[in-house]
Amino acid sequence: MGRGKIEIKRIENPTNRQVTYSKRRNGIFKKAQELTVLCDAKVSLIMFSNTGKFHEYISPTTSTKKMFDQYQKTLGVDLWSTHYAKMQETYGKLKEINNKLRKDIRQRMGEDLDDLGIEELRGLEQKMTAAVTNVRERKYHVIKTQTDTYKKKVRNLEERHGNILLDFETRYDDPHFGLVDNGDYQSAVALANGASNLYAFRMQQANLQQTAGGFGSGDLTLA
């Protein structure tokens, strides 16, 4: 039973379309290679998939440039000259735009103003005024942003300071932390001062013992 005839039309399913392209591309490349070997032909194939992926086959005995040169010679056309002319035209337009932009920049800096008329000078003045307005608005926006950031940092610091004070007051009122309430504050201060005086007296006593040398700990008494 023979194979059914396949209707040639665009495959709607993207996956099936890509699979068919890959299979038939390989088949075309295989046929091109066979032609090159069997018939000593110069074959060049350039293919682009619907996704823009590039595939090329060229006979081992030639190159793509040689094939294009032979194509132009056979048909009597000059593809390179046409392409070069288009590139030159594009380059000229871009160069003209670049020169115009450079001149506009120099005029905004106060240079190359001799050839401008009154209307052109007024137009330039309006452009510069609008530019100054935009710069000023941007400056005020930056200043406001920096000020808001500074205020936010200050608020955070004030909040942290308040939390530290609250924590300190909580521990101050809690007897488990060894602190006292307001009623015994003076007694605690006196006790702390007495401990400091006692420590200073002991240090003085130790220094006197080192100076006396021969005195023992029981020989030195207070007057």
Describe the structure.
The protein is mainly alpha-helical. The protein is built from five helices and two strands; from the N terminus they run αββαααα. Strands 1-2 form a two-stranded antiparallel ribbon. The chain is flat. Residues 178-185 and 214-223 have low confidence and may be disordered.
Shape assignment: flat
Q: Biggest sheet, strands in spatial order?
A: 1-2
Assign the structural class, choosing from mainly alpha, mainly beta, alpha/beta, alpha+beta, or little secondary structure: mainly alpha
* Percent range for β-strand residues: under 5%
Question: Which key terms come to mind for this protein?
Answer:
223 residues; mainly alpha; two-stranded antiparallel sheet; 5 helices; 2 strands; 68% helix; 4% strand; disordered C terminus
Short description:
By secondary structure, the protein is mainly alpha-helical. It has 5 helices and 2 strands; from the N terminus they run H-E-E-H-H-H-H.
Layout of secondary structure:
Elements: H1 14-39, E1 44-48, E2 54-58, H2 64-75, H3 79-108, H4 118-173, H5 185-212
Protein name: MADS-box transcription factor
Organism: Melia azedarach (Chinaberry tree)
